[in-house]
Task: structure prediction
Amino acid sequence: MSSDALAVYLAAQGFEKELADELCRKGVSIKASKERLFLASGLTDSVWAQNIWLEPSFTPVRSVGEAVRTLKSVQRNWKAHPVGFYRRAAVIESQLPPVKARPLRFGEPAPVSPLGAWTLWDHDLLLASPKCSSAFPDGEVRFEEDRLNPPSRAYLKLWEAFTLAGCFPAAGELCLDMGAAPGGWTWVLARLGASVFSIDKSPLAPNVASMHGVDACLGSGFGLEPETAGRVDWFFSDMACYPERLLTVVQKWLDAGAAKNFVCTIKLQGETRHDIVEAFSGLPGSKVIHLFCNKHELTWINLEKWRLNCL
Ligand SMILES: C[S@@+](CC[C@H](N)C(=O)[O-])C[C@H]1O[C@@H](n2cnc3c(N)ncnc32)[C@H](O)[C@@H]1O
Result:
């Protein structure tokens, strides 16, 4: 963590308390907050921030024109995040070049063009950062959705996780999908050409169960031992279960070296258990993120290529 650098953290929608608690636990000092924006001294990775403004600075602006000139003099692409003075912010925004935020078609890479973010912190005070942690406006990853084929909207979690990680299972790779029903994740994996072994106490939707490469088993994911299952390329879990239980399972698969890559949903209930989240983050080569489409849950991603890069 960079100790005195100023940063602005945009909390994931509805998770302002989680972000504030997380920053506090990481020793980041929050100077002020407005709506979902937290102005803080200290730059750190954050699970609950949907976007981080990496190089924010304040500029007094006496007029709309001055705000527009200030922003344009730095770069072309800016995303407004108003937290007050909404009409003034809208006028400024209308005079900046439009930022096209077309939903991604799954398989397209994440954008790479730098996208800044700004707000009017006060009537005559611009707060702007030319660099942000996410290249998506406000960190919101949107897709052209498929409303016909997947049996649940959970497929968006995998689309987002794969797009952010920049990789996904190759055709023919073996995937274990725990807590698979009704089958959104299995549908994504089978469409990629992977071989999928799906486990759930409930059955898959028939259109997914019949897909090429899908093998389904009715039962509990906790009953499957890595020694008996054998090695898999990808371990997925979207099981509705306590985070501690998931941690025990993935630790077992990691220790056995039985899965190369992991993407798992950490389902949180009631008061958020930051200690459990930190335990997942602490597993070597791990990232814990709050996907734009995650609700009160997080996504733990642990990829072989990251682990190798960590060594
Ligand atoms: C959020 S849903 C999964 C959605 C799924 N990933 C999809 O894309 O459609 C959670 C699932 O976890 C399953 N589940 C809960 N406990 C489980 C266990 N011990 N073993 C296997 N599945 C479990 C539930 O039956 C439920 O279908």
